[in-house]
Design brief:
Blueprint (H helix, E strand, L loop, with lengths): L30 H4 L1 H10 L2 E6 L5 H11 L7 E6 L2 H14 L8 E5 L2 E2 L7 E5 H10 L6 E6 L7 H13 L7 E6 L4 H7 L9 E4 L6 E5 L10 H18 L3 E5 L3 H15 L14 E5 L5 H8 L6 E5 L12 E6 L2 E8 L4 E8 L2 H9 L7 E5 L3 H6 L14 H10 L15 H13 L11 H7 L5 H13 L2 H11 L12 H8 L8 H17 L4 H10 L4 H20 L11 H9 L6 E4 L10 E3 L4 E4 L12 E9 L3 E8 L2 H7 L5 E10 L4 E10 L2 E10 L5 H14 L8 H20 L8 H11 L7 H14 L8 H4 L15 E4 L2 E8 L8 E7 L8 H5 L3 H13 L3 H4 L5 H11 L11 H13 L20 E5 L5 E5 L2 H22 L1 H4 L18 E5 L2 E11 L4 E6 L2 H19 L1 H10 L3 H8 L3 H6 L3 H17 L8 H34 L1 H7 L4 H14 L4 H4 L2 H4 L2 H15 L3 H25 L5 H18 ...
Parallel strand pairs: 1-7, 1-8, 2-5, 2-6, 3-5, 6-7, 9-16, 10-12, 10-13, 11-12, 13-16, 15-20, 19-21, 27-28
Antiparallel strand pairs: 3-4, 14-15, 17-18, 17-20, 18-19, 20-21, 22-23, 23-24, 25-26, 26-27, 28-29, 30-31, 31-32
Length: 1278
C-alpha cells in the first residue's frame, strides 16, 4: 500500500483535534485504487463526478479516503450516504479500520436512533434519509464540503429527491463537491442530470469483478404463474450442476419467502430422495435462508463460513446490500418480488416480476469475488436481452405524498418543476396529492392546510403523522404512539417454520377480537412489564424469544416509540392520563387510513373477496389475523398488499359513522328525489355520501333549500302552492284551491283536459310574485305576512285567469253524483286521467252491498258517457256490418235518444240492446262476438271501488265478478252481521232448527242500516245435524242454499224412513263395483256409501221438493206426511234406474279400447261421458233427463259398433254435432256458472241429436235434427 503524508487540520476550525490524521493507504488489490489519481483530478476540476463501479470495485470505502487525501473534510464534513442502515454502519467501521482510528473519531456514522459521529470527525456515513432530514434545519447543507451519494443506481425515493435537491443546491454552493456512485452502467442518466451548458458531468468507470464469471442459461420449460413445481425442479437441477463443477457455496436468488421455503423443501427432499444421493448432498451440506424478515441470529449464520458446502436461498437483498462470503456459484431465477404502488387502487402490490439486466448482472457478480464463478440463469439469453436494462426507480412506482409534503414545507416550489433524475409521471404526482387530500393536508388548490403544515413539521410518514395529530385531538396519544411505532417497523412477532403452531399459541394472548391494532398495545404492555422487571439482559432476551418475539425488532419498536414520543414532547403534546376508549383509538388511526377502509358484501360468492374497498377494489382479510373470519361489516386496515390475492393486513372493525366524522372532507355528497313534504313544510331530499365509492350513508333526509335554493324554491311553488300540498290559514290559498277544484270537476266529467289552464301558468303567477329567497313554508309565511299588509289580495287568482273556455252541457242528469240500488245509495265520481286505474266513472260500493250491485245497469254507464261508448262499440264491428250504421256518431246519438226511458233501470245488457236496435233500425243481424270489447278504452267500463263502513278501500277494479270472487264472502258475512244488528230483521233469523217451528219464511228481508234499507234473501242452511236461517244478498245463491237446507230438514224429520231405505239398498254394492270399471263412473260414484246417499237424496228431492217448496209449517207437514209412504218406493225406482245406467255403461270400456284407432271419435265419446257423469250426477241431473241415460249409453255403444264399418260417416256426423256444441260450450263458459234454463234445455237437445245421428233406431222423444237445433240456438241468442 502507498502511504501519503499525514493531513493535519487547520487550527482555526472550532472542532479541530490536536492529533493529526493517520496516513491514508489504498489497497492495491481494489480496482478503484488504480484509478484514484484520475478520480482525484476529476473531483478537483468538476463540481459533480459520476463514478460507475461494479460490485467489488472498492468505490464505497475508497472514495471518502480520496476526498480526504485531497484536503476535503477539513473545515467541513465529507458526507457519505448509504441506502441502508446496516451498510452505513458497516462501511463506517471498515473505513475507520483502514485508517486505524476509533469509530467516530475521524469516521463516524449516523442512522436512525444512533449517532456515532464525534465533534471534529471528517467523514460522516449516514442513510440518505438522514441527510434529507438535515435539509430542513440546514437547507444549504453548510456542514458539508463534499457529499458522496452511494448506490445511486437503487433509485430509492430518498436518493432521487436528494439528487434533485443537490442539483438545485449546487449553483448556490460552488464550493460543494458531489460524487455520485452507481454499481451499474446507468451512469449516462446521472451525468446528463448534473450536466451544465449541455455538457454532461464526467463519468469514471471502474472495473469491479476480480475473477471471471461463466454465464450458463438453463431456461425453465413451460413455466407459468401456477407451475411452481417446474421452477423448483429447475433449481434442484441447477444446484446439482454447481456441485458437480467443484467446491464452493451456492447462492440461489428467489423472489420471496414463500419460494424460499418451497425451494428449501424441494432441496431437502432431493437430498434424501430414493433415487440415490444427489451431487449437492455431501456430508453436512447446509441450506440457509436469507431475507429481510429473518431474525439477526438467523442472518448471522449466513455470514459465518463453515467447513461444509452451504446453499444460501436469498431474496434480492443479497444483490448489493449484503455480501455473502465464500460464494462460487449463483443460481438466478430471474425473478424478484417488487413493491409497486397502484395509482388506481391506492395499494402497494408485491408482485413477482422478471428482474432487469442490471439486477441480473449484479447477481452474477456475486460469484466472482473469491475465485472464478459460475452463474446459472433459469431463463434463456434471448429473454435476457429483451428485459429492461435497469430496474424502475422507486419514484416511478411509489406514492409521492411524503416527497410533495416535504417539498412544500421546504418551499421548493411545484413538484412538477423539481429537477428529478427521472421526473415522476403526472399520475404519480396526482396520486401523491390525492393521498395528502385524503389526510386533509392540502386543500382544493393543493396548498397546505393547517393540518398539512403540522404534518410537514413531523419527520414521519404522512399517514403516521396524521394518526398522531388525530390522537392528540382525541386524547389517545399514549396508545396511538405505541401503534404508530409498531406500524413503522417490522412486526416483532416471529413465526419460524419449524414452530409455527407454538408461535401462534404464544401470540394468542396478545390478540384482540375487534382490532389487530390493539394487539400491539397488549404486546407493548407485556414487553414493558418484562423490561421493567428484567433481571438481566440475557434473561430478558431469552424470555422474549420464548414468546417468539424478536429482541432486535422489539428494540427497534421501542426506539421508534421513543423518537415519536420525543417529537410529541417537542410539539408540547401530552399523553392521555386515562386509557383511551376503542372509539378514540380507532378514530385517530382512521384519520391516516381513510383509503384503507372496506365494506363487507353480504351476497358475495364465497370464492370472491368479501370486502369492497376504496375505488371498487376487493380484498380478503389476512388469514393470519384473528379477525380473518369474524371481522365486522366495516373494517380499516394498516395496509393493503397484493401477493397471490389482495389482502388487508392489521385490520380493525369500525363504525360507518366514524367515516363521516373523520373523512368529512372526502365525502362526495349527492342529493336525490328532492320533494315537498307537507308536515315540516320544507323541500326534503335524500342525501347519499360516498367515500372513494363506498356508500357511507344513504337516504338521509336533509333540508334541500340550503343545498340548491333555486331548485327548492321551484319545488315549493309547484308542489305546495300549485298542487295544494300545503297547510296554511291564508285566505288566498283556500280561495285558489276551491276555484281549481271546481274547474277540475268539470274537466273530469266532460273528459276535456283543456278547461283549466295548465299548471305552468299558475306557477308563473306565483313565480312572478314570490322572491328568490323563499324556499320553504317558514320563509314563505314570513314574506307573505309583510306583503299582504300592503296588498291583501296579492296572491288571489280569479276564475277567468284559470279557465280557457266554458264547459257546457254538464248536468247532474247526464253525470249523476249517486245511484240507488236495492235501497243503497252509492256515490259516483269522475276522473279524467287516461292510463290511471281511476280513469272514467267510479261507483263506490259499500262492502255490504257488493253482491247486490246491478251489473247490467253498470254496463250502461251514465247517460253522459253512453254516446261515446255506443260510438266505439259500433266502430268495433266488422266493416260489412259497420257500414249499415254510418255515420256512426249520429247512430250512437240516436240510440241514446231511443233508449232514454230504459237508462234508469235497464233490463238487458247493453250489447243485447244494441243488437236488437240494429235489427230493428237497419235489419242487421249481429252476434255478441262481433263486437270487439277489448278495443274499448278502460274509461268506458264502470270502475268499482269497494269500501268498508269507515270508507277504507278494500278493493278496486273494473271486473265486478273478480271483486265478488275476492270479497263476496266477506260481503255476505257483513250482511249477516248487519241483519243480526237490526232487531226487526233479526226476528226472522233462527238457529238449531230440526223441525219447521219458526213460522213462515219470507221471500225477502228488509234490513235497516244507517237510514238505508238493504234487501236480503233468507234461506234454510244445512249444518249437518241441524239447520239455520241465514240471510243472503244474492237470490240465486239463497235458492241453492235453501234447497240444501230443505233436504236436510226433511231428512231429519224422515230419519226412520231414511234408515229403512238405507237397509233396503244393499244391492247397490254390486252396482258400485260394476261402476268402478268405467273411469268416468268410478270418479262419479267413488264408494257404495256415496252411491246410496245420492239415491236417497234423489228420492227426497222427488218426493219432497217439487215446486212450489214449502214456506211454512203447514205446507212442510203436508209434504212430509206425503213423503212417508212414497220414499222407499221412489228410492227403489231410482236404484233400478241407476243399475240400468251402470249396466249400459259397463259395456263401453271394451268397445272404446277396441276403437282406439279412431282417436277423434273416441275422444269425442270420452268427453260426452265426462259431461254425462259429473260428481253427484244422480242428484244434480233432472229426473226427466236421468231417465234417458240408458238410451244415451246404448246410442254410444251402437255408434262404436258402426264406427269400424263407416268411419267417414261418423266423422261427418261428429262435425255436425261440433258445429252446434262448440258455441254452446263457449256460451256456457262465458256465463261463469250462472244458470240459464234455455241453455240447459239446449244441452239435452244436443244429447238427443247424438242419438238421432249415431243411433237413429233408438228414436227420440221429439223430432231432432241439426237444422232444428241451429234454429233453436238462433232463437236462444236473440
Amino acid at each position: 500500500m502507498q502511504a501519503p503524508p499525514a493531513i493535519t487540520r487547520p487550527a482555526t476550525r472550532a472542532t479541530a483535534i490536536s492529533a493529526p490524521l493517520p496516513p491514508i493507504a489504498f489497497p492495491e488489490e481494489l480496482p478503484v485504487s488504480a484509478r484514484r489519481d484520475e478520480i482525484a483530478r476529476a473531483i478537483e476540476a468538476n463540481p459533480v463526478v459520476i463514478v460507475c463501479g461494479e460490485t467489488g470495485s472498492g468505490k464505497t470505502t475508497q472514495l471518502p479516503k480520496i476526498c480526504l487525501a485531497l484536503g476535503r473534510g477539513r473545515d467541513k464534513l465529507i458526507g457519505h450516504t448509504q441506502p441502508r442502515r446496516i451498510a452505513a454502519s458497516s462501511v463506517a467501521r471498515r473505513i475507520a479500520q483502514e485508517l486505524n482510528t476509533p469509530l467516530g473519531e475521524v469516521v463516524g456514522y449516523k442512522v436512525r436512533f444512533t449517532d456515532h459521529t464525534r465533534p471534529g470527525a471528517a467523514i460522516k456515513l449516514m442513510t440518505d434519509g438522514i441527510l434529507l432530514a438535515e435539509t430542513q434545519s440546514d437547507p444549504l447543507l453548510a456542514a458539508y464540503d463534499t457529499i458522496i451519494v452511494d448506490e445511486a443506481h437503487e433509485r430509492s425515493l430518498n436518493i432521487d429527491f436528494l439528487l434533485g435537491y443537490l442539483k438545485q443546491l449546487l449553483p448556490r454552493r460552488p464550493d460543494l463537491k458531489l460524487i455520485v456512485t452507481s454499481a451499474t452502467i446507468d451512469a449516462e442518466r446521472f451525468a446528463a442530470h448534473f450536466g451544465t451548458a449541455g455538457t454532461p458531468a464526467p463519468v469514471i468507470n471502474v472495473s469491479g469483478r476480480l475473477y471471471p464469471v461463466e454465464i450458463r442459461y438453463r431456461p425453465v420449460k413451460d413455466e407459468d404463474d401456477a407451475d411452481d413445481r417446474t421452477l423448483m425442479d429447475a433449481i434442484v437441477d441447477a444446484v446439482d450442476e454447481c456441485a458437480l463443477a467443484g467446491p464452493g457455496d451456492v447462492l440461489v436468488f428467489l423472489p420471496g419467502e414463500r419460494e424460499i421455503r418451497e425451494a428449501a423443501e424441494a432441496l431437502r427432499k432431493h437430498r434424501f430422495g430414493a433415487a440415490g444421493p444427489s451431487p449437492a448432498a455431501g456430508p453436512g451440506t447446509e441450506i440457509l435462508p436469507l431475507y429481510a424478515r429473518l431474525s439477526a441470529e438467523e442472518q448471522e449464520r449466513v455470514f459465518k463460513p463453515a467447513g461444509a458446502r452451504r446453499i444460501v436461498l436469498a431474496t434480492n437483498v443479497a444483490e448489493t446490500s449484503l455480501t455473502v462470503p465464500g460464494i462460487r456459484y449463483v443460481v438466478d431465477t430471474g425473478l424478484a418480488r417488487v413493491k409497486r404502488y397502484s395509482y388506481r387502487n391506492k395499494v402497494e402490490q408485491l408482485q413477482v416480476e422478471p428482474i432487469s439486466q442490471a439486477s441480473a448482472n449484479q447477481r452474477a457478480g456475486r460469484c466472482g469475488r473469491v475465485a472464478a464463478g459460475v452463474c446459472i440463469r433459469l431463463y434463456d439469453e434471448a429473454e435476457f436481452t429483451k428485459r429492461p436494462k435497469f430496474t424502475d426507480p422507486e419514484i416511478l412506482r411509489s406514492s409521492l405524498a411524503a416527497v410533495i409534503l416535504r417539498m412544500k414545507s421546504l418551499g421548493l416550489g411545484d413538484v412538477r418543476a423539481f429537477p428529478f433524475v427521472e421526473p415522476p409521471p403526472a399520475r404519480a404526482i396526482a396520486d401523491g396529492y390525492d393521498l395528502l387530500a385524503e389526510l386533509n393536508a392540502v386543500d382544493e388548490d393543493n396548498e397546505l392546510t393547517p393540518i398539512g403544515r403540522e404534518l410537514a413539521r413531523l419527520p414521519v410518514d404522512p399517514r403516521i403523522g396524521r394518526m398522531l395529530l388525530a390522537a392528540r385531538d382525541h386524547h389517545a396519544l399514549t396508545e396511538v404512539l405505541i401503534i404508530a411505532a409498531a406500524l413503522s417497523v417490522q412486526d416483532p412477532r416471529e413465526r419460524p417454520l419449524e414452530a409455527q403452531a407454538a408461535a401462534d399459541q404464544a401470540h394468542r394472548k396478545f390478540a384482540d377480537e375487534k382490532s389487530d391494532f390493539l394487539s400491539f398495545v397488549k404486546l407493548w404492555n407485556f414487553v414493558a412489564e418484562r423490561f421493567e422487571h428484567k433481571k438481566s439482559n440475557r434473561k430478558l432476551t431469552d424470555e422474549l424469544k420464548s414468546n417468539f418475539l424478536s429482541p432486535r425488532r422489539v428494540r427497534e419498536w421501542r426506539e421508534v416509540h421513543s423518537q415519536l414520543a420525543a417529537i410529541a414532547g417537542e410539539m408540547g403534546w401530552r399523553g392521555n392520563s386515562t386509557p383511551a376508549t376503542f372509539e378514540q383509538v380507532h378514530l385517530s388511526l382512521l384519520a391516516g387510513l381513510l383509503g384503507n377502509v372496506g365494506f363487507k358484501t353480504l351476497d358475495a360468492d364465497y370464492r370472491e373477496p368479501p370486502y369492497v374497498g376504496a375505488r371498487g377494489i376487493k380484498f380478503f382479510v389476512w388469514p393470519g389475523s384473528p379477525l380473518a373470519k369474524k371481522a365486522g361489516r366495516w373494517v380499516m386496515a394498516a395496509e393493503l398488499v397484493e401477493t397471490t390475492r389482495l389482502f388487508a393486513r392489521c385490520v380493525a372493525t369500525i363504525e360507518p359513522q366514524w367515516l363521516e366524522r373523520v373523512g368529512h372532507h372526502l365525502l362526495k355528497k349527492s342529493w336525490s328525489d328532492p320533494h315537498w313534504e307537507k308536515k315540516p313544510a320544507q323541500v326534503i331530499a335524500f342525501e347519499r355520501a360516498t367515500l372513494y365509492g363506498l356508500v357511507v350513508y344513504n337516504q338521509r333526509r336533509v333540508e334541500f333549500g340550503s343545498k340548491d335554493p333555486r331548485a327548492a324554491r321551484e319545488i315549493f311553488i309547484r308542489e305546495a302552492l300549485v298542487e295544494g300540498e300545503y297547510e296554511t290559514q291564508a285566505p288566498f290559498f283556500a280561495h285558489n284551491r276551491r276555484l281549481v277544484r271546481e274547474i277540475r270537476e268539470l274537466e273530469h266529467k266532460t273528459r276535456r283536459p283543456d278547461v283549466l289552464v295548465d299548471d305552468e301558468l299558475i306557477y308563473r303567477f306565483y313565480d312572478a310574485l314570490i322572491p328568490a329567497d323563499v324556499v320553504s313554508g317558514a320563509t314563505f309565511e314570513k314574506w307573505r305576512r309583510q306583503a299582504e299588509q300592503a296588498q291583501p289580495k296579492l296572491l288571489f287568482l280569479n276564475r277567468d285567469e284559470l279557465m280557457r273556455h266554458e264547459a257546457r252541457g254538464v248536468t247532474t242528469e247526464l253525470f249523476p253524483k249517486q245511484w240507488e240500488m236495492r235501497g243503497v245509495t252509492m256515490a259516483l265520481s269522475y276522473h279524467f286521467e287516461p292510463g290511471s286505474p281511476r280513469d272514467g266513472v267510479t261507483l263506490t260500493v259499500p262492502l255490504v252491498a257488493l253482491n247486490q250491485v246491478d251489473a247490467v245497469r253498470c254496463d250502461w254507464l251514465v247517460p253522459g258517457m253512453l254516446k261515446e261508448k255506443m260510438h266505439l262499440l259500433l266502430k268495433s264491428l266488422p266493416q260489412k256490418l259497420r257500414r249499415h250504421c254510418v255515420p256512426l256518431p249520429e247512430y250512437a246519438a240516436g240510440f241514446v235518444e231511443r233508449h232514454r226511458q230504459e237508462l234508469a233501470a235497464p233490463q238487458r245488457s247493453l250489447i243485447d240492446a244494441l243488437i236488437a236496435d240494429l235489427r230493428e233500425q237497419n235489419n242487421v243481424v249481429c252476434q255478441p262476438g262481433d263486437f270487439k270489447l277489448e278495443t274499448l278504452p278502460a274509461h268506458l267500463t264502470m270502475n268499482f271501488k269497494v269500501v268498508d263502513e269507515h270508507g277504507r278501500q278494500l278493493g278496486m277494479g273494473r271486473s265486478l265478478a273478480a271483486l265478488r270472487a275476492e270479497l263476496g264472502e266477506q260481503a255476505q258475512q257483513r250482511l249477516r252481521e248487519v241483519a243480526a244488528q237490526d232487531a226487526k230483521a233479526a226476528v226472522g233469523l233462527h238457529e238449531n232448527i230440526t223441525d219447521w217451528d219458526f213460522g213462515e219464511l219470507p221471500e225477502l228481508l228488509e234490513i235497516e242500516r244507517k237510514g238505508q234499507k238493504l234487501i236480503g234473501f233468507p234461506a234454510l242452511v244445512d249444518r249437518g245435524d241441524r239447520c239455520e236461517v241465514e240471510v243472503f244478498d244474492d237470490a240465486e245463491q239463497a235458492r241453492a242454499k235453501h234447497r240444501d237446507g230443505l233436504r236436510r230438514l226433511f231428512r231429519l224429520q224422515l230419519k226412520e224412513q231414511v234408515k229403512f231405505v238405507e237397509r233396503s239398498l244393499s244391492a247397490l254394492q254390486t252396482v258400485q263395483m260394476q261402476a268402478s270399471v268405467v273411469p268416468t263412473l268410478a270418479a262419479a260414484l267413488p264408494s257404495f256409501e256415496d252411491l246410496r246417499d245420492q239415491v236417497i237424496t234423489a228420492a227426497i228431492d222427488r218426493t219432497c221438493l217439487a215446486d212450489p217448496w214449502p214456506t211454512d209449517n203447514a205446507s212442510f207437514v203436508v209434504r212430509k206426511n206425503d213423503a212417508r209412504g212414497k220414499l222407499n218406493l221412489i228410492a227403489q225406482e231410482v236404484a233400478r234406474l241407476v243399475a240400468a245406467i251402470v249396466q249400459e255403461a259397463a259395456a263401453l270400456p271394451k268397445k272404446l279400447a277396441a276403437a282406439r284407432a279412431f282417436g277423434a271419435a273416441v275422444a269425442d265419446i270420452e268427453q260426452q261421458l265426462a259431461r254425462l257423469f259429473p260428481k253427484r250426477f244422480i242428484v244434480d241431473t233432472p229426473a226427466a233427463q236421468l231417465a234417458h241415460y240408458p238410451r244415451y249409453l246404448k246410442a254410444i255403444a251402437l255408434r262404436l259398433d258402426k264406427l269400424k264399418t263407416d268411419p267417414a260417416r261418423d266423422a261427418q256426423r261428429m262435425s255436425e254435432v261440433a258445429q252446434l256444441q262448440t258455441p254452446y260450450l263457449r256460451e256456457l263458459a262465458a256465463r261463469k256458472g250462472v244458470a240459464d234454463p234455455r241453455l240447459e234445455e239446449f244441452r239435452w237437445l244436443l244429447e238427443e241429436l247424438r242419438v238421432s245421428l249415431f243411433a237413429q233406431e233408438l228414436r227420440t222423444p221429439m223430432p231432432v235434427s241439426a237444422k232444428r237445433l241451429a234454429k233453436a240456438w238462433e232463437s236462444l241468442r236473440r
